Hints:
The chain has about 300 residues and is an alpha/beta fold.
Amino acid sequence: MNAPLNHPLPLLDLDVLRTFVAIAETGSFTTAANAVFRTPSAVSMQIKKLEDILGRSVFARDARSVTLTTDGEMLLGYARRLLSINREVVSKFIIPDIVGVVRLGSPDDYGERVLPHVLKRFAQSHPSIAVDVTIDQSSNLRRRMDDRALDITLLTNSYKTSALGAEVLLTEPIVWAGAKGGCAHLREPLPVSLWEEGCAWRAGALEALGREGRNYRVAYMSAHTAGQRAAIMADLAVAPLPRSFLGNDMVELCPKDGMPDIGTYNLAMVVAPDASAPVKAVADHIRATFEVFRETGKF
């Protein structure tokens, strides 16, 4: 309902806008409710209140999905700007003014999949801290930490090994990934797509194939996740991936498909022992991100 022109316009509640943005970004009332620490019914009531104030529907709902209406798409831009201004203002008074540069290392897979989400949220809460990112293999990142060329690094380790001083953030199964409807796993010798030497996923996969006596050939090799995905989707090869990395166009290949169990791997974080306040802030943010992932399965 539109407000009469001689009455003041209603004020939008920032907490409601935060919920609105969370739903728009996740496409789910339930997932958004977890993100804003409310029940799904409370979230639904917030959106109803918002739509009543604006006199417009902001979401189109059906049994399987939630999408923004045209009005909702317009509101999303304003909501993000208002929330950003609010964070900036509040941070000036509440959050200590931490300034500095943090050198962060990450393997390619998590650098592509996770860091954009982590760094975007961190920049919103700590605008005065710059984060310089180095993408490399875990073995090289470990050496960079030892040489004090990095302040923090993420590392992938075999389930049998762990880096000295590393904090495990996540333990996850490594699975064989194949193209949906593909037949690469039926070929002899088995065509596999692998990373370079030093990759924990590669070591676990080759050990599993050797244990089962399965003949294989390295049909595709790349140091980047995008290259591995291309080989899988083209049905040129199968590849070892963390289960959470499987896309909708991939399937997990199990022992019933003739593929051996690989096991698990650890994603760990190493922080410099003499960490500064900015470094500690980045490390705490990464920990919080993976705590959410362990609970919800989403970054």
